[in-house]
Amino acid sequence: MHRFFGYGSLVNRRTHLYPAGRRLTVRGWRRAWRHTVFHHAPFLTAVPDPESEIDGLAAEVPGGDWKALDARETGYLRRALPEGPSIYHIPPDLHPAPEAELPILLSYLDVVVQGYLREYGEAGVARFFETTDGWEAPIRNDRATPVYPRAQTLTEREAALVDDWLSRVRPIAVPHG
Known about the structure:
This protein is an alpha/beta fold. The chain folds into 2 domains: 3-89, Gamma-glutamyl cyclotransferase-like (Hypothetical upf0131 protein ytfp, Roll); 104-170, no CATH class.
């Protein structure tokens, strides 16, 4: 069976149609915001960390046809995990950093947090923030006019939860634009 392990937007089932998704915790990894030349904003990546573990969603790739998922995950490498599924990640030496630090899209973060809330509850959202590095990056508040292509509408409770956690990790806000 061909499966992937999603630890960011792929945790939100509303962003894909991959079947048989199930919650999974993977040891030896944590998340980080990474700037690459492939995207106009930082994206989440998994980074090896023998002392950490991350929650996510494992789902099937129908017929083992990785083409569409590989296209969605442009800029990432796919690597098999001992647990069975494959994980997409951006090795730090693979892509040069952009010339200027770019802000994290709030619409992307909203999608990720919404997925964790639905799959793992508020405790899962807390673990997401606690096992993710790079919160010093600025945040672009594009919630009203989302830039992220798979943006989802959040409930007031979901938006408040994201905002509360952002105030705890204290990223620098940048004006909408």
